[in-house]
Amino acid sequence: MSLAGKRALITGSTSGIGLAIARALHADGAEVILNGFGDSAEIDALCAELGALYSPANLLDVAEIEAMMGKFGPVDILVNNAGMQFVSPVEDFPVDKWNAIIGLNLTAAFHTTRLAVPGMKAKGWGRIINTASAHSLTASPFKSAYNASKHGIAGFTKTIALELAQTGVTANCISPGYVWTPLIEGQIPDTMKARGLTREQVINDVLLAKQPTKKFVQPEEVGALAAFLCRPEAGNVTGANWSIDGGWTAE
Ligand code: NAD
Predict the structure, then answer these.
(1) Average pLDDT, the chain
(2) pTM for this one?
């Protein structure tokens, strides 16, 4: 229970990887604040399970981010995890999708971070963890906005790690390969269309083709890595981009 007394805000934690990170931090004793969209009865059940607070803030709206950080701050642990994907050739890429992906996957993390850092500095302890992606290190076609946002969050993370290096606050990225979540499921139809493939071909020849293990990463594995980064033993881990991708970026 090394995180007893620590308050953790995990964005995009009503589903998928963020929920697994919330569960892992709760298991280590942190007080958890959930954020994201979803069915209100399911969110109530998650709050009961984790003894968690919940913010419905839409992270595409700066005023909502500011209200969330004001209401629930100061936080000791900030996990910028909320993200979205859209798959399309660049010449057809919808402008509103580009703006939303950059807004959620990159700009929202800037806002939460700028608002969380003063409290962390004042306490002389903090953990900022950004869910990046294997796509922060490499690219795939038809994901121009996503790849740009994830390369961006990796650069942002390194920058704030350097700025905060002597403050007791660390900043790191976690970069998963393919994890079976609603985000992955949602991109299959568009990938079928963009590449002219069947569902099975997309899963086996596009997604798992990238991962030498031929297995999806499990959300719980990402949660365990996030929990490690919050522990005292990880105090000298900062500015790192941790791959958890079945060997994808080793190739
Ligand atoms: P998911 O779709 O299961 O979860 C996304 C979460 O973000 C949900 O809680 C959703 O409600 C929330 N969200 C969406 N729009 C929001 C908004 N405007 N404001 C606030 N919350 C919002 O997806 P996931 O696969 O768990 O993805 C989580 C993160 O992991 C993302 O940053 C994603 O890019 C990254 N990632 C996922 C994979 C993968 O294979 N699933 C791989 C690498 C990186």
Answers:
(1) 97
(2) 0.97
